[in-house]
Design goal:
CATH topology of one domain: Rossmann fold
CATH architecture of one domain: 3-Layer(aba) Sandwich
Shape: globular
Radius of gyration: 19 Å
Strand order of the largest sheet: 3-2-1-4-5-6-11
Distance between the termini: 46 Å
Number of helices: 9
Length: 314
């Protein structure tokens, strides 16, 4: 049985808390646990202060791969740690930079949590599954197609060894699929398809998608992802779990949903995918996440897009 302290929510730390998923998590934690102290640690390479406009906690502007955790938290040790900080741009090709910042940042966080008995939830990625055709299960052999996916694969390897060696330590990794939703616009080119296509369509332009448009992705709304992250603290044992919608939807379907929600009628404009490592199909097997975390996604793609468009355009 993993060790969870009675004061679990007293001092919450979220690394990468100014980023897309991180800021949504921080604001939801603030809503659910108003008496908790929440620290955001973010170097703002891929975060934005505007994402934390309503945040009432503290922000520390540090790169977690280049600072000693004991020095960072000497004044107020965390009682729980959510680690979402990483280089998330999959087009970055600098192997050393990606591996150092993602893996060594995680290693420092993990070592600190083990030494201080701090429960840890960290962000992995469905990119570790690589290019495939079937549903993706946690038992699948990793097949990273780029260095970002490789870095997340190494994170999972390091985490699994710690889970085996120290079974009483709470360590949960979450493999996020294609997340979309509020507070992602600052990511620019790295924002979701849903964000970019909606912007084109609102400007009266046809949505540009990879030909022939029947590629399918597991699009998961960020509100469901945040629920999964918080639920991970209730897992009875450590592990790595998928977080998606559990249903693959095609690019053509997505364009049709956006047309319906936005009240317009723009046919897709097709072009060839320029990325040899692009995943043409992703779909999360949620069997383990449902059993271990009680995770049940609430938003269909139709409902998530509708909610998101209200956030973006009122």
């Amino acid at each position: 049985m993993i060790n969870i302290t009675n004061n679990l929510w007293e001092n919450i730390v979220v690394t990468g808390g100014a980023g897309f998923i991180g800021s949504n998590l921080v604001l939801e934690l603030q809503r659910r646990f108003p008496k908790s102290h929440i620290d955001v640690v973010d170097d703002f390479r891929s975060g934005d202060f505007a994402n934390l406009e309503d945040f009432r906690g503290d922000v520390q502007a540090f790169d977690v791969s280049r600072i000693d955790m004991a020095d960072l938290f000497y004044n107020r040790p965390p009682t729980v740690m959510f680690h979402l900080a990483s280089i998330t741009d999959t087009t970055v090709t600098d192997d050393k930079l990606m591996l150092h910042d993602n893996v060594e940042g995680f290693r420092g966080i993990l070592d600190y949590c083990i030494e201080n008995n701090v429960p840890l939830v960290y962000a992995s990625s469905a990119a570790t599954y690589g290019i495939g055709e079937g549903r993706m299960s946690e038992d699948n052999t990793p097949a990273p197609a780029n260095v970002y996916a490789f870095s997340k694969t190494i994170l999972d390897n390091v985490a699994r060894k710690a889970m085996k060696d120290i079974p009483e330590q709470h360590i949960v990794g979450l493999k996020f699929f294609n997340v979309y939703g509020p507070r992602e616009g600052h990511k620019k080119i790295a924002s979701s398809m849903i964000y970019h296509l909606s912007r084109m369509m609102k400007e009266g332009k046809r949505p540009r998608i990879f030909a022939p448009g029947d590629q399918k992705r597991d699009f998961v709304y960020v509100r469901d992802v945040v629920d999964a992250i918080i639920a991970a603290l209730g897992a009875e044992e450590s592990g790595i779990y998928n977080v998606g919608s559990g249903r693959a939807r095609s690019f053509n379907e997505l364009c049709a949903i956006l047309n319906d929600v936005l009240g317009i009628d723009l046919a897709p404009e097709y072009f060839e995918c320029p990325y040899p490592f692009y995943q043409p199909f992703t779909e999360a097997d949620l069997t383990r996440a449902k059993a271990a975390l009680g995770y049940e996604p609430k938003y269909s793609l139709e409902d998530g897009v509708a909610d998101y468009m209200k956030f973006l355009y009122g």
